[in-house]
Amino acid sequence: MPAEQTIHLERYAPDAKALVAAAQALADERKLLFGYVDKDGRRTERVVWPVAVGFFDSLMMLAAWCETRVAVDTPVNIHLTGCHHSCAQHFISEIGLLACKVQESEDGDPIEGYHILVGGGFGPNATLGRDIYRDVKAQDAPRRVEGLLKAYMTHRASPQESFLAFSKRHDVEALKAMCDEGAAE
What are the strands, taking DSSP E only, across 41-129? Predict the structure, then answer.
């Protein structure tokens, strides 16, 4: 995609203008370049291909393929849903994210977050995903998914091994350890 078609989200405040810019990029099949400050206070930027845009309470969410974080050379089935009844089938996705409220402190209001599952499949590989992380703050969920994808690319048995086969080959604690290793990079 030519750089001149890139939208720079950094220009927009995190409000409706940013949502409109992201939705327009999705409709026009353009990638987005946006700047932000990470949780450690470092200024950084990312190039992403938008997949979906929406809101969860007061949080704007952008589901996107991030070009600069991790290169995955095979499809990975990732489902994100706000419905605990499995409307978006988070239990049968290779990586599933189920929106939830996370209690940060006893006296504070709950914040947006996710339970993250791995290893779900359908058809001939039908199985339910296993909880790998519960009560992950929404701002931390992308780093967890990134860690899972990096762990897969680093530790898979061969380039032909699917994420599903990889996740079935390891117990949850081993996957967490590899994920944490990948997220730390």
Answer: 43-56, 59-66, 78-81, 95-102, 111-118
CA 38 to chain centre: 16
Single pTM value for the model: 0.67
User: Top-level CATH class of 73-185?
Assistant: alpha beta
Cα 16 to Cα 131: distance, rounded to the nearest angstrom:
34
Residues 6+ apart with CB under 8 A from 104: 110, 111, 137
pLDDT digits (tens, 9 = 90+) for 99-154: 899 998 888 889 889 999 999 988 898 888 999 999 999 888 888 998 999 999 99
Q: Where are the domains of the chain?
A: 1-68, 73-185
CA angle 48, 49, 50 (to 5 degrees): 105
Q: How many residues does the chain have?
A: 185
